[in-house]
């Protein structure tokens, strides 16, 4: 079973990461994150007549809402052609004829792209984090750290899903179609369906199922993680009140996100095995 | 120890209804240049991908250098084999040199191996240029350079001369002879029979997923008893008498051609016909012997299975 050479993984990951640096993908993503974070931090409550650095909690709450739309989309676009792109171009056969296993290849792809996402996330949201740390002191920054780490985790979840559909899809066109469908489903449709079913049966059954149903949508897990990090924010979110305390613990929610990263990758590996 | 480089038994691979490779046995010995010959769609590329462990057969067994190609130990064999896929593609954003560096790293080689190879395939001038500016022929040359990384024991080349101009094709076969001299085993596929003909030690003729015949060109054409073509050029003025004599002597059907005659005879009779010609050698200016070409052999071997006349 120990037919695993981290060196081979690192070579693929390194190439993937450098590709994204060179193509300026990392720069563009980091800039987008920076601009949004700055705008939200300084003008988040402009509609209420106040301009200037907002409170940390309110800023995180706004950033979370933004990230739920933006980061899954960015991660899906980043990863959708990881494998299908190679096979469609005609470079996959040669790569797999090298002394590399398919697990190393797949994980290498994922790690390289995840590293690009990590740099974009930490650089992009780091500036606003630094401004808050300078203004509030480093000690107050725990919720912001949770925000950045969970944002990266959310990105990795959708990256992992993207890599999986990149293995499953026969062509890049199919892959991008599936990616967009996935985004619609988890970001827009899922919560509406959940809400609809809650209303429809007056919460008799769906109420009990709801906390678990939320775990099946990584964007909800992400939201809950950040709410859990900001006790004062719970009141701002109606949803939070229906979640049992057990599900409000950050380690547990973090583990759910990790599971969401591992499972699609494992499925992708099974799909990619020599057939 | 003379372990076969490739040992395949009863290998079958289907895609849906199509039996791309159908019950194929294949043996390739160390140090030979072995050709997989067949039309497009005959199953050559699929057989190659099976041999390299890139796809799994539904039936049969394949060993490469004695190791099952789908087993975990095959990784070590991969370090000693090189592959040039048909219509190979690389990463457009990398330069030629970076491309070779990437594959060299995966094979655990030092990067210094890359430059001399670019020189060897005539790409030294383009080493620092991104591949998006490379022509088809340049990509094919880069593909060959990639395959030569680290002096592999086995080279597997799928339609390697596609996209090369005549000068490039000549250079390519020069490099191939070089590799053979260094003891490499080479498997190459081609549908261009005239071009590949003089370069093979042994070959397998494929059609419709099956190997129809294996051997060297001589054996294969002898088995078929394909006729040898002979053309005679005679001294001016002797054509009539010489023709009448030769027809009487050998019973062959002669056709007047240019300043002499053209005719065919079976390989078995070739020597006796030549001996007869030698008795009146003073009247013969030139003899041109043409043995059956690879194309003749291929068409003869596969026509029976194609269900139609050869093209």
Layout: helices, strands, pairs:
The complex is a heterodimer of chains A (275) and B (311).
Chain A: H1 6-22, H2 25-43, H3 56-79, H4 84-89, H5 92-96, H6 102-136, H7 142-168, H8 172-200, H9 206-215, H10 218-229, H11 250-272
Chain B: E1 6-15, E2 18-28, E3 33-37, H1 44-51, E4 59-64, E5 67-68, H2 74-78, E6 81-84, H3 96-106, H4 114-120, H5 136-148, E7 154-158, H6 166-181, E8 185-190, H7 193-196, E9 202-207, E10 210-215, H8 217-224, E11 228-234, H9 239-250, E12 255-257, E13 260-265, H10 270-279, E14 284-290, H11 294-306
Parallel strand pairs in B: 3-8, 3-9, 6-7, 7-8
Antiparallel strand pairs in B: 1-2, 1-4, 4-5, 9-10, 11-13, 11-14, 12-13
Structure description:
The complex is a heterodimer of chains A (275) and B (311). Chain A has 275 residues and is mostly helical. Chain A has one domain (6-272). Chain A has 11 helices and no strands. The mean pLDDT of chain A is 90. With 311 residues, chain B is α/β, with parallel strands linked by helices. Chain B folds into 2 domains: 6-222, 3-Layer(aba) Sandwich (Rossmann fold); 227-291, Alpha-Beta Plaits (2-Layer Sandwich). Helix content of chain B is 34%, strand content 27%. Chain B is built from 11 helices and 14 strands. In chain B, the strands form 3 sheets. A 6-stranded mixed β-sheet of chain B has the order 6-7-8-3-9-10, with helices on both faces. In chain B, strands 2-1-4-5 form a 4-stranded antiparallel β-sheet, with helices on one face. A 4-stranded antiparallel β-sheet of chain B has the order 12-13-11-14, covered by helices on one side. In chain B, helix 4 crosses helix 5 and helix 8 (217-224) crosses helix 11. Chain B starts with 5 loop residues before the first strand and ends in a 5-residue tail after the last helix. Mean pLDDT of chain B is 90; it is low at 307-311. The chains are: A mainly alpha (275), B alpha/beta (311). Chains A and B meet through helix 1 and helix 5 of A and helix 2, strand 6 and helix 3 of B.
